[in-house]
Amino acid sequence: MLSVPNLFLVGGNSRHSGKTTLACDVIRKFSSDFEVTAFKLTRIHPAEKEMHGNHRSESEFSGYSIMEEADDDSSKDTSLMLQSGAHKVVYVRATEGYLQRAFEEFRAKYDHGQPLVCESRGLRDVIVPGIFVMMMRIPTWGPPKEVDQYLHIADKIFYFDQSRDVQLEWINRLQFKNGQFYFSYSK
């Protein structure tokens, strides 16, 4: 698997589990010192095409698509990432067979060694990020997702009902240096 040490990756077991909130917190922490690029990568399963928002018409979608977010005045996850201080924000959609190809194309255009912050559980199937966090909401909002295979490889697991202070304290210890994310255990 491809190692991407400058990538902070957050996934979750459900909608409304805190993924975007955590991604935006990380963007805010690093955007004053770095030109953070954020992206949301959604793996599209055939039965879910209508569930993932209106970013581009289906007639334009074939395997994968990569779209830069320009709207910093909406409540879409990608817009919230811009509002949090990301230099660039991109929305990537890919069907199962195109996940790695979509990420490689994204990386060729947008990865220059700066911090990358991504909301995507499925991307963890093809890469090893610098830091991988899982957000868990129990009970789930909507149908639960199968996430057991991700929990044992996560660097950190947060639960939806956990105190925000716990998350913010953890983010305060998150570091980025020499092109990689890492966690500092000392205060």
Give a quick set of tags describing it.
about 190 residues; alpha/beta; seven-stranded mixed sheet; 5 helices; 9 strands
Overview of the structural elements:
- The protein has 187 residues and is of the alpha/beta class.
- It has one domain (2-179): Rossmann fold (3-Layer(aba) Sandwich), CATH 3.40.50.
- Helix content is 24%, strand content 31%.
- The chain is built from five helices and nine strands, in the order E-H-E-E-H-E-H-E-E-H-E-H-E-E.
- Strands 3-4-2-5-1-6-7 form a seven-stranded mixed β-sheet, sandwiched between helices. A two-stranded antiparallel ribbon has the order 8-9.
- Residues 54-59 have low confidence and may be disordered.
Protein topology:
Elements: E1 2-12, H1 19-30, E2 37-44, E3 64-68, H2 77-83, E4 88-95, H3 99-110, E5 116-119, E6 127-136, H4 148-151, E7 156-159, H5 164-172, E8 174-177, E9 180-183
Parallel strand pairs: 1-5, 1-6, 2-4, 2-5, 6-7
Antiparallel strand pairs: 3-4, 8-9
Protein structure class? alpha/beta
Question: What integer is the average pLDDT?
Answer: 90
Order of helices and strands: EHEEHEHEEHEHEE
Number of domains: 1
Instruction: Give the amount of beta strand, in percent.
Output: 25-35%
| CATH architecture field | 3-Layer(aba) Sandwich
- Please provide the count of β strands: 9
Query: Rough shape?
Result: globular
**Count of helical segments?**
5
Share of helical residues = 10-25%
Describe the largest sheet: 7 strands, mixed
The spatial strand order of the largest sheet comes to 3-4-2-5-1-6-7
CATH topology: Rossmann fold
Rg: 16 Å
